[in-house]
Predict the structure.
Amino acid sequence: GQNIDQPTEMTATEGAIVQINCTYQTSGFNGLFWYQQHAGEAPTFLSYNVLDGLEEKGRFSSFLSRSKGYSYLLLKELQMKDSASYLCAVTRGGGYNKLIFGAGTRLAVHP
Amino acid sequence: SQTIHQWPATLVQPVGSPLSLECTVEGTSNPNLYWYRQAAGRGLQLLFYSVGIGQISSEVPQNLSASRPQDRQFILSSKKLLLSDSGFYLCAWSGGNYEQYFGPGTRLTVT
């Protein structure tokens, strides 16, 4: 079966750095996505990791270790607008790009 | 560029009434299409996916059904709504890569 674990909630201070972890167990793993979802809105794409290592994109970076079934999303120079849920999702091969989502981590950024 | 539309944006329906939610995609051909449901404070649950016209795969047995009458149209339906059908319904599409792009969503409240 599949299992994706993320912390339910996190808090951080404006300007700080926060790391959101995701662990997964799934057969036929192909890659891992991070999405951002503001309350009441649709998820928006942040990153996609297929190979081990760190992918950096501006203030956001994502890391993947396939052997450990582990990923993290690193947010630097936090801003109030970063308050949102962050969804970890794994994709399996099969030709139809099926995504399995974790429950998400609600991040609250305080001044 | 590609865009994805969903309507209605919000819907309040009594228990036992029918449901029809529509999703259309513009700017791409032969997309994979997906219906997700997100209960309050929960992750995204994949309900249906489609790789082509008339081809529907169900992920979770329930009183919902999906249809794809045209290449870029995906419809979610129910003959009789249950209270447990309340949630945020998201349509998504994907193309040649694994990234999924989400529509704005429909918030359904069953009373």
